[in-house]
Design a protein that fits this description.
Strand content: 15-25%
Number of strands: 7
Number of domains: 1
Strand order of the largest sheet: 1-5-6-7-3-4-2
Oligomer: single chain
Structural class: alpha+beta
Radius of gyration: 18 Å
Distance between the termini: 34 Å
Helix content: 25-40%
Number of helices: 9
Length: 265
């Protein structure tokens, strides 16, 4: 297996909330790398977690699954059947690092019609299934303008070429699974900081022929020891640029002085 890719979305020293998408130039949708065994173990430890569905149109399941099977077989070397069947996404997601969501549309309506998210970043997929873009992102500070433009955002997801974006924050453990029912968030402890950067690489693939989009989520965790001095400084400046609301949402202390000292040390 190849070594895990490295992403530093905070390199500009700013914490930014927005759509922030870029065209996926290398057509690398999934990431099969040397960290895959840890993801498989974490997904298994999460327990029985069947794929959640909310009225997914049959043609959406068929078309999105054909793409997923083709790309997973090519990038992971698996042999998934190309024709959709009951349990297909549950089976596939047990063998890959990515979590996934299908966004469906019908007329002016859109909703999250399928979710197989076993390693969420502090949220419960069961509370999001069937929701709109606005409803799903309601807890995120600074997303107000994007949420108001939700229909334009969903249209972009469906009609534009494949895209990727990144979301980042910090955590104080090395756990992949931050489901609120299985994980109690650790607060920063100066005596035992264990600061780790948590990054989500999010890939968006549109299927304009049926009015659906596939949303892939792949986690990357970087302990401070793996960051260069310049990257640590950029991380510190990014945290300094957060609003008070963003800090609370991201589990950053209201007064981040001690945390910043650890990052910069």
């Amino acid at each position: 297996m190849s070594r895990s890719a490295r992403y530093i979305p905070f390199a500009n020293g700013r914490y930014e909330v927005g759509v922030g998408v870029h065209t996926l130039s290398d057509q690398r949708f999934f990431e099969c790398d040397d960290r895959l065994p840890r993801f498989i173990e974490a997904k298994r430890a999460a327990g029985s977690n069947p794929t959640l569905m909310c009225e997914p149109p049959a043609d959406h399941l068929r078309v999105v699954w054909a793409f997923v099977a083709n790309r997973v077989n090519a990038e992971y070397g698996l042999q998934l059947p190309g024709v959709y069947h009951d349990g297909a996404f549950t089976e596939a997601c047990s063998h890959i690092a990515e979590d996934l969501v299908i966004v469906s549309t019908a007329g002016d309506r859109h909703w999250m019609s399928l979710m197989d998210v076993r390693l969420p970043s502090g949220w419960d997929p069961a509370s999001k299934i069937g929701g709109t873009f606005d409803q799903v992102h309601a807890p995120v500070p600074g997303m107000e303008s994007v949420r108001r433009a939700q229909h334009d955002v969903v249209k972009m997801m469906i009609t534009r070429p494949p895209m990727q974006r990144f979301v980042w924050g910090v955590q104080y453990d090395d756990e992949l699974d931050h489901h609120p029912d299985r994980h109690t968030p650790k607060v920063f402890d100066h005596d035992d900081p264990h600061v780790t950067v948590r990054i989500e690489r999010q890939v968006i693939v549109g299927f304009a022929s049926v009015g659906a989009a596939l949303f892939l989520i792949r986690l990357h965790l970087y302990p401070l020891a793996e960051l260069s001095a310049d990257e640590r400084e950029a991380l510190a400046r990014g945290i300094e640029s957060m609003s008070p609301e963003a800090r609370r949402y991201k589990n950053v202390p209201d007064d981040p002085t001690a945390l910043l000292r650890v990052i910069r040390s």
